[in-house]
Every structure is written in C-alpha cells, then in structure tokens.
Design brief:
- The chain is mainly beta.
- Helices cover 12% and strands 42% of the residues.
- The strands form two sheets. A four-stranded mixed β-sheet has the order 1-7-4-5, with no helix packed on it.
C-alpha cells in the first residue's frame, strides 16, 4: 500500500507531462526560430510551433506580469516574420483569449493564443511574437 501512492503519483505526473509537451515540428519548419518578447503588463509564459492540418500554428500561454495592470483588454500580440537579414516579411496583430486575464484565480490567471501563419513566407527564418499594450 505504501508503494501504491508513489507509483500513482509518478504515473499521473508522466501522463500530464506528456499532455503539455508540444508535438514535434514538421521537417520543413525545423529551421525556424521562435522569439518571444514580453511587455511591462504581460508575459508570454510558453510558446511553440505546431502543425495543424498541414498549417503552421503558434500556440502559447500569456500571464500577467507581477505588478502589471489589472486590465489586459488593451494588450495584444504583434507577430512578425523575418528573413535572414532581419527584414520584415509579414506583420499581423493577434489577440489572446480571454482578453481579460483574471486576477482572482490562484495560481495566476492565464490566457492562451493560437496564431495560424499560412502561408508562411518562403524566406522566413524568425517568427517574433511580441506582447504589446495600446495602439500602434
């Protein structure tokens, strides 16, 4: 009986770890680098590439920065694709859901995002996701 609890705990831990591990990237996207930039208000806690139905998707989690604003509805994500020389190939403004990250949840409230980049510009080497508040 004493061994049952540690074995169950280990099994659940491994099972949950497998659920949170991103799937491997398709071979044609292995060369891509994903760069995330936090803002003063929100932090990109996790971000990774996924292939969904043959389309490139960036998936991730957003949390409020400690001491950040309580209202995150003015925050958004700037997504930029860059070539090897650092030239901008494409830029878009995306949103996370929910837009208002709860402050009542413990542990910290969070939001998620799924950004589909299709078609991906052929010269893309870097995909940059930057948290941003307010207007441009």
């Amino acid at each position: 009986m004493k061994l049952l609890y540690p074995i169950l705990l280990l099994g659940f831990s491994l099972g949950f770890a497998g659920c949170m591990t991103p799937a491997p990237r398709p071979a044609e996207w292995v060369h891509l680098q994903l760069v995330t930039v936090d803002s003063n208000e929100i932090r990109l806690a996790k971000a990774w590439f996924e292939g969904r139905d043959g389309r490139m998707t960036i998936v991730g989690l957003v949390v409020r920065q400690p001491g950040g604003a309580r209202d995150t509805t003015a925050s958004h994500l700037d997504v930029t694709t860059l070539d090897a020389m650092g030239e901008v190939l494409h830029h878009s403004i995306e949103h996370f859901k929910p837009r208002q990250i709860s402050t009542r949840l413990r542990p910290k409230g969070h939001a998620s995002f799924q950004i589909e980049i299709d078609p991906l510009p052929t010269a893309t080497v870097v995909v940059k996701v930057r948290a941003h508040e307010g207007l441009h």
